[in-house]
Amino acid sequence: MAFGNSDGDLAMMRYARTGSGPSLALLLHHDDTEREFAYDREFRLSPLAEALDRADEYGFTVVSMKQDWSRIFS
């Protein structure tokens, strides 16, 4: 099982998905500018672009802060 939120986590998440047993890779998309700092493709420190583009291909489950979280804690 792996949980990531940037392209820097790709190797870990892909490794978790390539094992012979059950696996889960969750990709957290910080896409709620009203309740939490949003960053993805244009975030210079740790972008989230390739992982979003290839999530289906790699078998990642994308979790959207905007759509999937009812509450965000500061």
Short note summarizing the structure:
The protein is 27% helix and 16% strand.
What's the topology here?
Blueprint: E1 2-4, H1 10-17, E2 25-29, H2 50-53, H3 55-58, E3 61-64, H4 65-68
Parallel strand pairs: 1-2, 2-3
Question: Please, could you describe this protein's structure?
Answer:
The chain is of the alpha/beta class. It has a domain at 1-45. Helices cover 27% and strands 16% of the residues. It is built from 4 helices and 3 strands, in the order βαβααβα. The protein has a 3-stranded parallel beta sheet with strand order 1-2-3. It is globular, with a radius of gyration of 13 Å. The model has no long low-confidence stretch (mean pLDDT 90).
What is the helix/strand order?
EHEHHEH
Q: Helical region count?
A: 4
Q: Characterize the overall form.
A: globular
Weakly predicted, low-confidence segments: none
Structural class from helices and strands? Answer: alpha/beta
Strand share of the residues? 15-25%
Helix percent band:
25-40%
Largest sheet properties? 3 strands, parallel
- Cα separation of the termini: 26 Å
Compute the gyration radius: what is it? Answer: 13 Å
> Could you tell me the mean pLDDT?
90
Main sheet strand line-up:
1-2-3
How many distinct beta strands?
Answer: 3
Salient structural properties:
about 70 residues; alpha/beta; 3-stranded parallel beta sheet; 3 strands
